[in-house]
Design goal:
The protein is an alpha+beta fold and 165 residues long. Helix content is 13%, strand content 30%. The longest helix is centred in the C-terminal third of the chain and has 14 residues. It is globular. The mean pLDDT is 94. The structure holds zinc ion (2 copies). The site of one zinc ion has 5 residues, from helix 1. One zinc ion (ZN) binds next to helix 1.
Amino acid sequence: MKLEGSCHCGSVHFSVSSKHPYPFNNCYCSICRKTAGGGGYAINLGGDFDSLKVEGEKFISVYKAIIKNSVTGDSQESPGQRNFCSKCGSALWQWDPRWPELVHPFASAIDTDLPFPPERTHMMLGSKAKWVEIHPGPNDKLFEEYPQESLAEWHLRIGNEGRNA
Ligand SMILES: [Zn+2]
Ligand SMILES: [Zn+2]
């Protein structure tokens, strides 16, 4: 489906075609929480980078998080590029040069009505703030770090289960 999105002040509008539009993937990592997740987490969608069209590109700033390696203690800049509006601060999408064909818009920036996810994934719970209470539904899946299942695999599984039901 085609997703339309914007920042809060309206300086940036974008559209992107998405095969993976269910907002099921809640990320509780500290970067998502601080940059995009007032409720304790952010929700990433999957889109096709080639289809991304942007108005107001000059207002976009990019943040690359500094990530500390828990084993070596070294700090490194993450290759992941978090795009946000430099005027109002709205988080827009993440793009990573390691997977250049993908783009991950934040559900919070999308204006199109998104489909309601029949179950959710709660990931990076090892980084969750103590004050954040999760309310998992009966079929929700919980992960301390990253799940094995990708955004694409989740959509494939849900689609197949829908057909079997
Ligand atoms: Zn803005
Ligand atoms: Zn995250």
